[in-house]
Amino acid sequence: MTPMHFSFTTAFILGLMGVAFHRTHLLSALLCLEGMMLSLFIALSLWSLQMGVTNFTPAPMMLLAFSACEASAGLALLVATARTHGTDRLQNLNLLQC
Fold it and tell me: What are the record's GO terms for cellular component (predicted)?
């Protein structure tokens, strides 16, 4: 495994561990998800450049578009949660009360 692959894999795993273990605020979970998507975008774009595959070049841009949609949906959920509950702490949210 090259150092470049190791760094992208480590960045993705650190973001995954942040989502799994540090679930106190919704904003921190959204930031960890964005870090995971950024590491996937960079790894996918460098992979397509290294392999020289011309048919696969639009894939990183499509991943970036889906990441922007995910970020906007997450921020809308954050604003809605902060307005209704007054905080973004995940311990205060209960899906059974919806």
Answer: mitochondrial inner membrane; NADH dehydrogenase complex; respiratory chain complex; transmembrane transporter complex
